[in-house]
């Protein structure tokens, strides 16, 4: 029936049954799920924060601080710990959960080792903040970049701590003479949708494949198996 053939009462009833634009705008719609809250203790409370201190010498303090405080900020970011370094008393103050402070101490120790020689990683205790990838000897300089700038840029991009180090003999069995383990520390992923440690590892694999074609990807396009620690 056309509008011309409808009576006034019928037209009024039709308008009353039709929802108004305002009513239509109130109809249910899909929305994003709320972001998940940070992990909590079994009792539902955030982990208790603790304050710990450690003493360093003058040379170590300068190395841990880094240019413009860059190394200290990196360690704080990766460990999730607040770090203060008093250059007069040579005391480092850590504030965070017990686990965060323990990781910060490990990272500080690794940085101190870099100042005097190669870093050694103790693999006897499993840890969930660590990945290692064996880099072929002819790619190490390319992955490092001039004065380590390429490695530093990857750290900044993915929010991780990266350096070449010695791990246990079993992890190095798959490597050749001159190959070295690139150690990556930090969370496996960092919300929202950030790959963090895994992203850094993929970036390293891409650099190695660019410099050494066929090392990571076969001629058939398959990813090759290489010794790594997760």
Automatic annotation (TrEMBL):
<dbReference type="Pfam" id="PF00013">
    <property type="entry name" value="KH_1"/>
</dbReference>
<dbReference type="InterPro" id="IPR004088">
    <property type="entry name" value="KH_dom_type_1"/>
</dbReference>
<keyword id="KW-0694">RNA-binding</keyword>
<feature type="domain" description="K Homology">
    <location>
        <begin position="48"/>
        <end position="113"/>
    </location>
</feature>
<feature type="region of interest" description="Disordered">
    <location>
        <begin position="1"/>
        <end position="57"/>
    </location>
</feature>
<dbReference type="GO" id="GO:0003723">
    <property type="term" value="F:RNA binding"/>
</dbReference>
<feature type="domain" description="K Homology">
    <location>
        <begin position="117"/>
        <end position="209"/>
    </location>
</feature>
<protein>
    <recommendedName>
        <fullName>K Homology domain-containing protein</fullName>
    </recommendedName>
</protein>
<dbReference type="InterPro" id="IPR004087">
    <property type="entry name" value="KH_dom"/>
</dbReference>
<dbReference type="InterPro" id="IPR036612">
    <property type="entry name" value="KH_dom_type_1_sf"/>
</dbReference>
<feature type="compositionally biased region" description="Low complexity">
    <location>
        <begin position="19"/>
        <end position="31"/>
    </location>
</feature>
<feature type="compositionally biased region" description="Basic and acidic residues">
    <location>
        <begin position="9"/>
        <end position="18"/>
    </location>
</feature>
